[in-house]
UniProtKB/TrEMBL annotation:
One BP annotation, GO: amino acid catabolic process
Function according to Swiss-Prot or TrEMBL: The electron transfer flavoprotein serves as a specific electron acceptor for several dehydrogenases, including five acyl-CoA dehydrogenases, glutaryl-CoA and sarcosine dehydrogenase. It transfers the electrons to the main mitochondrial respiratory chain via ETF-ubiquinone oxidoreductase (ETF dehydrogenase).
InterPro entries in alphabetical order: ET-Flavoprotein_bsu_CS, ETF_a/b_N, ETF_b, ETF_beta_N, Rossmann-like_a/b/a_fold
Domain Electron transfer flavoprotein alpha/beta-subunit N-terminal: 27-223
Subunit: Heterodimer of an alpha and a beta subunit.
Organism annotation: Wickerhamomyces mucosus
Name of the molecule in the record: Probable electron transfer flavoprotein subunit beta
Cofactor(s), by name: FAD; AMP
Superkingdom of source: Eukaryota
Amino acid sequence: MSTKLNILVPVKRVIDFAIKPRINKAGSGIEKAGVKFSINPFCDIAVEESIRIRETNKSFVDKIHAVSIGPSKAQDILRSSLAKGIDSATLVDAKEEEIEPLAVAKVLKKIVESKGSNLVILGKQAIDDDSNHTGQMLAGLLNWPQVTNAAKVTVNGSGDSVTSVTVVREIDGGEETLEAELPLIITADLRLNEPRFASLPNIMKAKKKPLEKLSLEKDFGELDLKQRLKVLKVEEPKEREAGVKVKNVDELIAKLKDLKAI
């Protein structure tokens, strides 16, 4: 019996990475009104990697499905992913509610089981909360092996059957190479690849691809998704004082002594 890849790619809608975020007047979070949103950069890398895996190993991949848990406006990033080569997508409408990583992992577990996925590729973190938790929590809930911070992914197999996946991850002072059998969770790091742009013809074609819409409240109401974290305050970092130039080492040491740094 052949084993083919059924890939799930979770993606998140965040404030565009090129925009400098501003704290709202209440000091409770980031100002979102009138701000451009786009796909989380690490999620975009995960989308690209799933497509590249199919382009490199056509006989190994059965289907690629994307999912986003968030507001209805997240359809935009799903349509963009479909235009790049994803086969189908699911939007889990969470209204405007902020969803914590554990709750996201619980919802993704149900989707993995319903879609029969055996490989999940997701960004290592989202640039809005920088939690870097979801992939690890999902692996724990599913009891699957995981490889985080992937810098290179290679699918191994023969014929149309996958035997294992080899992942290279960057660590302090070098690289670590790991090999695991399916099912598997992989989180994508920055240097895994450079995402492509969707062409206009593919954007038009993506409108005909299936996009399933579910409700977080109605379709996942049996899950314990209560908030466990509370943001007390968000504030700008203190402005750094201007530095000074010194002429020699003796002057540097004197300055450091004045500041009681040494």
